[in-house]
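so my prof wants the structure for this chain in the tokens format not the other one, which i didnt know existed until like an hour ago. anyway here's the sequence
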Amino acid sequence: MIRRVLFALVAGALFGAGLAVSGMADPQRVRGFLDVFGAWDPTLAFVMGGALIPMALAWSVQKRMAAPIADMKFSLPTRRDIDPSLISGAVLFGVGWGISGLCPGPALADLAIAPVSAAIFLMAMLGGMILHRLLPATPAKQPSLETENV
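here's what i got, hopefully its the right format
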């Protein structure tokens, strides 16, 4: 248990440091990336591209491991279908990110930098999470054996 918490703390600190060093905690940086016909700032593209390298390595290493270092088993997603819930959630996330320039990680980091705007974002995010819990879930369509790709 302590090992798991320690790994989570180190991973969170590393992620936060990466946000700070890359400037991704600055909402103007994100808005600048989305302003393709104005003063476009490509920094976010480099951050995203740079994240692909360690993630590709991590997936490669994970395939060779029987179990993770800090847990009993891997918690990997099992669903691969794209449904209306996923699409609408992705659209809402993207619109919110574009309008505010924040997503959950940078918003938490921004509590120390710009607490008022970050707190407003986080309250709206929590409201959306509560609303999601209160709304009835739509049943997921299970793929049939004929259409399942293995």
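also thought this was worth mentioning. The two ends are 35 Å apart (CA to CA).
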